[in-house]
Amino acid sequence: MMIYLPIAEVSVNAFVLLGLGGIVGVLSGMFGVGGGFLMTPLLFFIGIPPAVAVATEANQIVASSFSGVLAHLKRKTVDLKMGTVLLVGGLMGAAVGVVIFNYLKALGQVDLLVRLCYVVFLGVVGALMFVESLNAIRRAKGATGAPKRRRQRGWISKMPMKMRFHTSGLYISVIPPIIVGILVGILAAIMGVGGGFIMVPAMIYILGMPTKVVVGTSLFQIIFVTAFTTLLHATTNFTVDMVLAVLLLVGGVIGAQIGARIGVKMKAEQLRILLAIMVLVVCGKLATDLLFQPAELYSIGAAGGH
Q1: Which 3 state secondary structure label does DSSP give 197?
Q2: What is the pTM of this model?
Q3: Domain spans in the chain, listed from the N-terminal domain onward
Q4: pLDDT value of residue 194
Q5: Cα torsion at 136, 138, 144, 149 (round to 10°)?
């Protein structure tokens, strides 16, 4: 069933969009990522212009993340206090990101920038997560005692403005979570992602949060940052395609509930290595598109923007 998307100005199969939304929703519930890191490139691949994909995908992330958070709140695996601190940074970062996005859109360079950002960030994060996950699995098999992961937070323990986060069992400075939030907010605005693929590793390896709390807390923060980002894009860029958003949203909400159930049954190390592999696969596909399809760099879509 083909459907016309008025803002994107293309026709696509409605069932394909529902399916993509469902798959990304499952990932959202399993890994605590908004799923935008995967969905936005997939929208590129089916012909959606990058500027529209970025703005609209932020909308879908809100719904799938909200659905995922409800599932995690029932299990009491959301640190609301930490999520709020991350959110403060996230909102500041999102505002900065939209300003950068608008400037590059005016220069006509936004499509290339979005693709390059994906290749760089997905490549780096995917590789780091893959290596660390393999090490964690090896430690779990060979070590008799628990791995000493907390030592990585030595420099954070010396920072001022400390706060106690009871759900995570932490007493740390609020400065690192705010900085992490700002960086993720900028990424949310420029790349149309919830930022979970950066947020989840940062919460585990930099802040030292327990993995079982990380997923729900990440989704809690993602809801508000991406909602704010969508609002800014809709009012400044007019690139939010509501028809596309609704189709992705329906699939995403259903998928997130399924993903949350699957995630609880899997070990943390298995979840992390699966996410790392997925990130690297998407990165590889985007990189090959940039390298072997130079014609993509020239777009007639720019003529319609005003």
Answers
A1: helix
A2: 0.66
A3: 2-304
A4: 65
A5: -20
